[in-house]
Design a protein that fits this description.
alpha+beta; five-stranded mixed β-sheet; five-stranded mixed β-barrel; 24 helices
Length: about 800
């Protein structure tokens, strides 16, 4: 017995020594690795990279910008089913362990020894948080020790819900998606609250091997792993056996969300917003800051603007002949493969690429570009069709002169006729258009060219072009604001200007002839160059330069008389903004594509509307005055002058160069613009509540043709847009400001008259025309009495 006691004592002493030594070693290891542990307290204020989301004015999602596609959801916003699926798949004892799960380690080891197909990880969700947030992914003992130590500390500092929240928002789930919210949208185009049991289980299956469980490349393996997670959820009591059976039977249908501004033809608009956000906040804030941006875009108007511009460009391009062969390919045994390799432009649908298979005397037989499936693979199906005589009539060519077998062309399906197509071609000419709310400067629609996929260059904001005669209203507005009236007489006669360098400039009218004295109104309605130059010389180019700057058309217009005819360079956006100020009564507006911006926490960090709301901060009703919006915007022109120029530009559409628009029988005002050699064609105009401007020209400026003019090409684009935009809305007149006198005058002389040949003209107080002439005609300087000289006499605004 004594020997046994001694032996037991020896064992005890040895065990104690080993324990002490082991404890010392463990303590030393812990002390060593604790010296450089990351600061886990940073998790409290952790802000993961979150994508910026851009919305249209109606709330629809327009674009997303991110380096990691993530939407951060607080724990309370994550459905219990989602949490339960990930816990079942990743950490069964999550709510009971303290950061490290011995049972899980033993279970994973047993599974490994047994060689079971479904491998289990020994890391808890807390350990994964420690690794993903604070450590590297190196597979080393040192990293694992740090991971365990951090997990123990994290568990003492944060609640289980907070740890799970961090995990479910940080974890990578494949296809560029980070976190469950982004993954739900990315895989199923649903919010997390709309996911079925099977869909939730598939997301929970992804953390282990997101690439290996790709639903397109490894569907069988993905379904197998999903079903395993469904089984784990049933075993842990999160779902019933019946639910599990139904979920396993559900096919894995992945519908990745395809978010592209092309769905509403808004590529140019979205890119302009992206550039502004980048300039305002920097790249990091844009791609990681989780901004919520509400833009001004009206999706319906955007589609209308796109259609009007494209139709106008195609109308011009097709009138100038066929040039539409894209390239040639080898038909070979399967023409679909080389045809499928040609890049397609998503924003020109329903146009499609096609290869000519056969050419007859009357038709082309074509093969359509195969569609690509969701994984990007080319469809095995081959679709063919026919371009008949009607589909190529516009080319004025025989089929054999158009293309040969192997040539690739664009075609468009003929509505109501299956298998029949119309020949199309990408226009060589380009252009841009902008629609704007004239009272706020909100850009409702913007199209920067025929196709954003073809060229990202935004001709609405980046192309500096000559506005031509569309600048004339600025010149005439300056005159009306400084003593002239719509009935003032200006000579339409040749004028020679000494350039100061020995050269003489003699401006010519578009028609090449002169018409004698005319009213100011006539000068705009018929876009008379010689009248405009005389008027500009009379009021002085420095004044015109000042008004051009006020309206934002130019920053620093050189004071040369040629600039009065629109020889400077500006953008469509600037011109539409300027015309909007005529429409709103002369108030300065600032063009904007963004209404407001919120940070990731919902705080508004920018808003376009700078008006002060007086009384809007009241916390309770105490018989105070109603809230008032204080508008402190600058008045850039007299409201009476703004109405006068609006009334004159109504005449442009009723009787002048914009007569093509008169068929709408709507209250509209606007002005054409055709530059020298017709390199640039414009039309800018507005209704009482909507401004719209359009430009057409080649990217490398060249003449659009000897007969090209805005009245033929850009005015119809304005007409087509306004027809769509104003459909089903009542026709309302322009707002007449207090003080304006509406007087019936002779359309040619501007004098008081009644009956045929008269119009209603707008006059400021004290500038009404006389009842009769004192001389023989309005061209006689003695014709006017002294008291009306300022109206139509020889003083400011008189005969010149």
């Amino acid at each position: 017995m004594r020997g046994i006691a001694r032996f037991l004592g020896f064992l005890f002493a040895t065990g104690a020594i080993v324990f002490v030594i082991g404890a010392g070693i463990v303590a030393a290891v812990i002390w060593k690795f604790e010296q450089d542990l990351p600061d886990y307290s940073q998790l409290k204020n952790y802000e993961p990279p979150v994508m910026t989301r851009v919305h249209a004015a109606d709330g629809s999602l327009l674009a997303e910008y991110a380096r990691e596609r993530r939407l951060y959801l607080p724990s309370a916003a994550i459905p219990p089913l989602v949490k339960e699926a990930f816990i079942a798949a990743e950490d069964k004892n999550f709510y009971s362990h303290r950061g490290v799960d011995p049972e899980g380690i033993i279970r994973a080891a047993m599974v490994f020894v047994q060689g079971t197909k479904h491998m289990q990880g020994a890391s808890t969700i807390t350990q994964q948080v420690a690794k993903n947030f604070l450590l590297t992914s190196d597979r080393t003992v040192e990293r694992k020790i740090r991971e365990i130590l951090l997990s123990l500390r994290i568990e003492t500092a944060y609640s289980k819900d907070k740890i799970l929240e961090l995990y479910l928002n940080e974890i990578y789930l494949g296809l560029g998606n980070y976190g469950v919210a982004a993954a739900a949208l990315g895989y199923f185009d649903k919010s997390v609250h709309e996911l079925s049991v099977a869909e939730v289980a598939y997301l929970a299956a992804l953390p282990k091997e997101p690439s290996a469980l790709n639903p397109f490349r490894n569907r069988d393996r993905a379904v197998e792993r999903r079903n395993y997670v469904i089984g784990r959820m049933a075993e842990d009591g999160y779902i019933t056996a019946e639910q599990a059976k139904a979920a396993r039977a559900e096919p894995l249908i992945v519908s990745p969300r395809v978010l592209t501004p092309n769905s509403i033809a808004a590529g140019f608009f979205a890119e302009e917003v992206r550039r502004e956000l980048s300039e305002r906040y920097g790249e990091q804030k844009l791609y990681e800051g989780g901004l919520s941006v509400r833009t001004t875009l009206d999706p319906k108007l955007q589609l209308m603007a796109r259609k009007a511009l494209v139709d106008g460009l195609v109308r011009y391009d097709e009138a100038h002949g066929w040039h539409g062969t894209v390239k040639s390919i080898d038909l070979g045994q399967d023409w679909g493969v080389p045809l499928g390799d040609i890049p397609e432009y998503g924003d020109i649908k329903p146009w499609r690429l096609a290869v000519v298979l056969d050419v007859s005397d009357t038709a082309l037989r074509v093969g359509l570009q195969p569609e690509h499936d969701k994984s990007g693979a080319l469809s095995a199906e081959r679709e063919t069709g026919t371009v008949g005589p009607d589909g190529m009539k516009w080319t004025n060519k025989k089929p054999k002169a158009l293309a040969k077998p192997g040539d690739v062309v664009y075609v468009e399906p003929v509505a109501g006729k299956a298998g029949e197509f119309r020949l199309r071609q990408i226009p060589e000419v380009s252009g841009a258009c902008v629609a704007m709310d004239p009272f706020t400067g909100r850009v409702l629609a913007m199209v920067g060219g025929f196709s954003y996929d073809l060229s990202e260059f935004n001709r609405a904001t980046q192309a500096q072009r000559q506005p031509g005669s569309s600048f004339k209203p600025i010149v005439y507005a300056a005159a009306l604001d400084n003593g002239y009236t719509p009935s003032s007489i200006v000579l339409d006669e040749p004028i020679s200007i000494d350039q100061g360098n020995g050269e003489i400039w003699t401006p010519q009218n578009f028609e090449g002839k002169s018409g004698g004295p005319h009213t100011l109104r006539f000068g705009i309605e018929h876009s008379i160059n010689q009248m405009t130059v005389r008027l500009a010389r009379d009021i002085g180019m420095p004044l015109i330069t000042e008004y051009a700057k006020r309206f934002g058309v130019y920053d620093n217009l050189p004071p040369y008389l040629s600039m009065s005819l629109g020889a400077g360079e500006t953008t469509v956006l600037r011109m539409v903004t300027a015309y909007s100020m005529f429409d709103n009564g002369g108030k300065r507006i600032k063009a904007t594509l963004i209404d407001r911006i919120q940070d990731r926490w919902g705080n508004t960090i920018y808003k376009h509307d700078e008006r002060i709301c007086q009384g809007c901060d009241a916390k309770a009703w105490d018989n105070q005055d109603e809230p008032k919006l204080i508008d402190k915007r600058e008045q850039v022109i007299d409201p009476l002058s703004a109405y006068q120029i609006t009334s004159i530009m109504q005449g442009v559409i009723q009787r002048g160069t914009g007569i093509a628009i008169s068929e709408l029988h709507r209250t509209l005002a606007g002005k054409t613009g055709t530059t020298n050699e017709a390199k640039d064609l414009w039309f800018v105009g507005y209704s009482p509540n909507l401004a719209f401007g359009v430009f057409m020209g080649y990217d490398k400026p060249r003449s659009l043709g000897d007969s090209a003019q805005a009245a033929l090409y850009t005015a119809p684009i304005f007409r087509d847009f306004m027809k769509m935009a104003l459909a089903n809305t009542p026709d309302t007149p322009f707002r007449v400001p207090p003080g304006i006198k509406l007087i019936s005058v002779d359309v040619h002389t501007g004098m008081r008259a009644s009956g045929p040949g008269t119009i209603v003209e707008a006059f400021k107080p004290g500038t009404s025309p006389p009842d009769a002439y004192f001389g023989d005609s309005p061209t006689d300087p003695e014709a006017f009495s002294p008291d009306v000289s300022k109206a139509v006499g020889t003083g400011p605004g008189g005969l010149y």
